[in-house]
Design a protein that fits this description.
By secondary structure, the protein is α+β, with helices and mostly antiparallel strands. About 35% of the residues lie in helices and about 25% in strands. The chain has a domain of about 120 residues.
Length: about 170
């Protein structure tokens, strides 16, 4: 009789652990975009892999965090682009998408506004953006300088001297 009681308690305990796992820790996997968008709008735990043109992203909705929905974003693989872009592979960031008054999110790609995110992936994305901007400026410095001439306060235009004081040359 005692063995039956211990066995029953053990079964109930294991069942409790399984239920706890599925309620608090398990994230269902979405294979279709419609499933992902629904889960994101409702901020319900889920995972989704988006094989975009340039990068494969993995998303995992962690759940509601105060007035936002926490989504972990990982760059799985850079498919196209510069070799330098591969530094984002395997990096992740947590994004906090604001919830509306009904507790729902606006369905967007979490990486679309990295101001809502923090983590190593965000830092690497910002580094890549700065490097691309720097390269653009170097390649187009002549055009940029031409565009700035004639702008008040910028040296090199027809304004005369740089101080704006007519008596400097007297």
């Amino acid at each position: 009789m005692k063995k039956l009681g211990v066995g029953l308690i053990l079964i109930v305990f294991v069942a409790f652990l399984v239920v706890t796992y599925f309620v608090f820790f398990h994230a269902s996997k979405c294979s279709e975009i419609n499933c992902w968008e629904y889960k994101l709008k409702e901020c319900k735990k889920a995972k989704y892999v988006n094989h975009d043109i340039d990068v494969s992203w993995e998303y995992e909705i962690k759940g509601k965090e105060r007035d936002s929905c926490e989504v972990e974003v990982e760059a799985l693989q850079v498919v196209t682009g510069l070799a330098r872009s591969r530094i984002i592979e395997g990096k992740s960031m947590n994004c906090f998408i604001p919830l509306d008054n009904e507790g729902k999110t606006i369905v967007v790609a979490p990486e679309a506004d990295i101001n809502l995110c923090h983590g190593r992936l965000k830092e690497e994305l910002q580094t890549l953006m700065i490097e691309k901007l720097h390269q653009y400026v170097l390649e187009n410095v002549g055009e940029i300088a031409e565009g700035l001439t004639g702008v008040e306060g910028v040296v090199g235009g027809d304004e005369g001297n740089s101080s704006g004081n007519e008596t400097d040359n007297v």
